[in-house]
Design a protein that fits this description.
This protein is α+β, with helices and mostly antiparallel strands and about 170 residues long. It is built from ten helices and six strands. The protein has a single domain, classed as 2-Layer Sandwich (Alpha-Beta Plaits), CATH 3.30.70. It has a four-stranded antiparallel sheet with strand order 2-3-1-4, with helices on both faces. It has a two-stranded antiparallel sheet with strand order 5-6. Bound molecules: cytidine-5'-triphosphate, adenosine-5'-diphosphate (ADP) and magnesium ion. It is an enzyme of class 2 (transferase).
């Protein structure tokens, strides 16, 4: 089996307010064999949202995007899998709500997206952005150290899963 790849997933605020939708998306993650390396729930701050979406600063939707992303708690997951970045984005489906609903109704955004802004989830779009985005929300996470010391264990060993914390860990027994 090839090296695991890491990606940052965000479950956006309107989903956290709807437990049934949240469960549906968590089930997709687990059924698709992602390992959840880190997991936290918190309200994203204005500074974090502005920095995170810096590339969209001059777009017409930037203000509503940052306003929405700071409107309540989000779930933040570091997901691991071979091809995690591409696989997670294909499970999410197209960015725009009509496109996802008409062309990919079975994807996460097709099922749970409410608008182009409130499109349910985020996923990193390249290994470089994954590294940057993980650093924004998990500053305590040492990315290089994880690949040195944890990647092989996550790939090869038995893992435990905590449904309360929605996170996997290496089973040392
Ligand atoms: N200059 C603009 C403004 C809006 N739109 C598009 O117009 C649609 C409707 O915009 P709006 O009614 O503001 O969306 P909302 O339903 O309010 O949803 P949200 O703000 O969460 O996207 C969206 O698909 C948006 O991408 C666009 O293409 N160009
Ligand atoms: N045309 C749009 N109208 C409103 N919001 C948008 C639009 N395009 C993108 N967004 C919001 O900005 C986020 C970031 O956009 P982008 O990076 O292009 O998409 P993705 O999240 O698929 O990588 C989207 O997930 C969505 O919440
Ligand atoms: Mg993007």
């Amino acid at each position: 089996m090839a090296l695991l790849q890491l990606t940052l997933a965000i479950i956006k605020p309107h989903i956290i307010k709807n437990p049934t939708s949240l469960k549906g998306i968590q089930n997709v993650i687990l059924k698709s064999s992602f390992k959840v390396v880190r997991s936290k729930r918190k309200p994203i701050s204005l500074e974090e949202a502005q920095y995170f979406y810096e590339e969209h600063k001059h777009k017409f939707f930037y203000n509503r995007l940052v306003t929405f992303m700071t409107s309540g708690a989000s779930d933040l997951y570091i997901l691991a899998k071979e091809n995690a970045i591409k696989d997670w984005r294909s499970l999410m489906g197209p960015t725009k709500v009509y496109r996802s609903q008409f062309e990919a109704p079975d994807t996460i955004r097709g099922k749970y997206g409410l608008s182009d802004t409130r499109n349910a989830t985020h996923g990193s779009d390249s290994p470089e952005t994954a590294r940057r985005e993980i650093g924004v929300f998990f500053p305590e996470f040492d990315y290089d150290k994880w690949f040195r010391e944890e990647e092989a264990k996550f790939r090869c060993s038995q893992l435990k899963f905590s449904s309360d914390e929605f996170v996997h860990s290496v089973d040392s027994h």
